Amino acid sequence: MGMLTIGAFAKACRLSPKALRLYDELELLRPARVDPDTGYRYYATEQLEQARLVAWLRRLGMPLARIRTVCALQPGPAAREIRAYWAGVEAETATRRDLAAFLVDHFAPTSEEDTTMLELRYAALSDTGLVRAANQDTAYAGTRVLAVADGFGPAGAPASSAAVEALKTLDRDTLPAGSVLNLLEDAVRGATDAVRNIAEIGDDGTTLTAMLWTGSRLALVHIGDSRAYLLRGGGLFRITHDHTVVQSMIDEGRLTAEEATAHPQRALLLRALTTDDSRSTPDLHLHDAHPGDRYLLCSDGLSSVVPDPVIQRVLSSVPDPEAAVRALVTEANEAGGPDNVSCVVADVVGSEATDRGDENRR
Ligand SMILES: [Mn+2]
Asked: Which part of the chain has CATH 1.10.1660.10?
């Protein structure tokens, strides 16, 4: 077995001697021999492979503790661990990308199109379903605020209703001065505080998926496993990402979307408005509204039992928002109604359509 000094070994594996000493202390890469008199470290040439693997994983940005885990694994599990690490990096980057896009929109000059008069037509409906004894969901739709919240734990019902109540402070004719981003953040902080005043224990909390209408855009705030969909040009697009254990397993390639629908832990949330600060950060998005767009907010009581193609068919074929939310709740209950189900449907209509609507109402 050939032995190398730390300097020669460092050169061969492209790690600095300083890094090698750190990895020794962390038991990530122990020298083959330490001279008892001088304390000099010596490495075996056979250790080069492992050292270079550590260097590659460092280049990936993987934390040392996780590298230690990977190095101790067999090739198959090691591959899965690296895939899982990378999925986490991408999810984190996606969240930051959305925030960056939000900020770009915030600073971008207002375009000509934004002067188009647009208006929302909306309806909300929440139903206990056929199995649960009580309804812990809250659904709300007003001129500016659309919201669905799905409470959990003993205080789930007051938690979901308090979160929506806090957002309703934005439901007024004129928005208070300030950027949409700051308004939303303040409202969400209010919602979080309200939930915490109710939730005594970590088991209580609520999801929250809500939109604030600015007159030309919809600012979306989302945490948990309720969802927002956009029906545009006949296509149905899910515009929220579930903050669940199974969704992260799908992202990491450990589970298919189909397997997830039957997974025993599919209701386990990674994030929600709870007493736990580290799990309470929502996602924010800003959406330009186009005339003809239809938005759906729903709790998992709909999306877990009614397949997307059925949701798409109902949204495409039932023009009136009131009738659409009723039809969606009916679909959930016909599928067994195992959970509380809440839906908000909102249509973006242009000013011409608005005028016609007014005439029809007269
Ligand atoms: Mn639910």
From this structure: 3-72
- 116-361 carries CATH number 3.90.1200.10: no
**Ligand 1 center from residue 208 Cα (angstroms):** 11
What's the gap in Å between 343 CA and the centre of ligand 1?
A: 12
Distance CA 351, CA 349 (A): 7
Range 3-72: architecture per CATH: Orthogonal Bundle (1.10)
Q: Which of 70-74, 129-133, 136-140 has the lowest mean pLDDT?
A: 70-74
Residue indicated by tokens 């067999």:
74
Question: CB neighbours (10 Å) of residue 340?
Answer: 27
> pTM here?
0.76
Write out pLDDT tens, residues 153-174: 999 999 999 999 999 999 987 8
Give 45: exposed, middle or buried? Use CB within 10 Å, 0-12, 13-18, 19+.
Answer: middle
How far apart, in whole angstroms, are the C-alpha atoms of residue 123 and residue 145? 11
C-alpha of residue 319 to centroid of ligand 1, in Å: 26
